[in-house]
Design brief:
The chain is mainly alpha-helical and about 220 residues long. Helix 1 runs antiparallel to helix 9, helix 4 runs antiparallel to helix 5 and helix 5 runs antiparallel to helix 9. The protein is elongated.
Length: about 220
């Protein structure tokens, strides 16, 4: 098999950005959700948050994989330089400038990418014996925050969208239709919980447990 075309590389990387930032968005949304709504299925929501964060990290790791020959953002920029004459929009100087700017962005992400690769190699893709023996060392050696992941996907998305715009004239944000539909699911839980509390109070008196936000809204419409 021959090497992938530039379009195939670009499409694969856009897919990874889309998937990674979507997983991160779900994790962030659930972390910020009303805890009373999550308490009804704490294991499910806990695993969903943890899994989404791990999958977001893996997507970021694939985008900047240091395995020789892997399709990555740096490889795409090298290939773009070699095929600069095939870009449909913008002159060679404009494309070269965008490539140079993207290379600078990647260098600016180096410390975050180091942490992501360390986590990928020592825990997410492989159970490194040293990490198993001292799990706390991973957090100390590869500190990574949600804002770090946010920045990685935001800046990487900008790179692939600018390249896509110049190469094939395609523009637009990368997102799934309904990528925040978890909000509707949480809202239905809120409605059911509020109705349950109201019925309880009618039969037994004041509810003393935790109460979802916005239970004062009547009827319990979607918000």
């Amino acid at each position: 098999m021959g090497k992938p075309t530039f379009k195939q590389v670009l499409d694969a990387l856009k897919r990874q950005v889309l998937v990674g930032k979507s997983y991160l968005g779900v994790a962030k949304g659930l972390l910020n959700a009303d805890p009373v709504l999550l308490d009804g299925a704490r294991t499910f929501f806990g695993l969903t948050i943890d899994g989404s964060l791990e999958l977001a990290q893996m997507a970021a790791a694939r985008l900047y994989d240091r395995t020789k020959g892997a399709v990555t953002i740096p490889l795409m920029l090298v290939q773009a330089t070699k095929e600069i004459g095939s870009f449909k929009r913008g002159g060679r100087e404009q494309v070269a400038r965008v490539i140079k700017d993207a290379e600078n962005v990647v260098r600016g992400l180096e410390s975050v990418l180091d942490a992501i690769q360390h986590r990928r190699n020592k825990w997410l893709a492989h159970l490194d014996p040293r990490t198993v023996g001292d799990p706390a060392a991973l957090a100390a050696q590869a500190k990574l925050t949600i804002p770090d992941l946010d920045r990685t996907f935001r800046e990487t998305e900008k790179i692939v969208l600018e390249m896509s715009s110049l190469y094939e004239g395609v523009i637009g944000e990368l997102h799934y239709l309904g990528d925040d539909d978890y909000k509707s699911a949480l809202n239905w839980i809120r409605i059911a919980k509020c109705a349950f509390i109201e019925n309880y109070e009618k039969q037994f008196g004041p509810w003393t447990g935790p109460r979802p936000k916005d239970c004062s809204r009547k009827p319990y419409d979607l918000i």
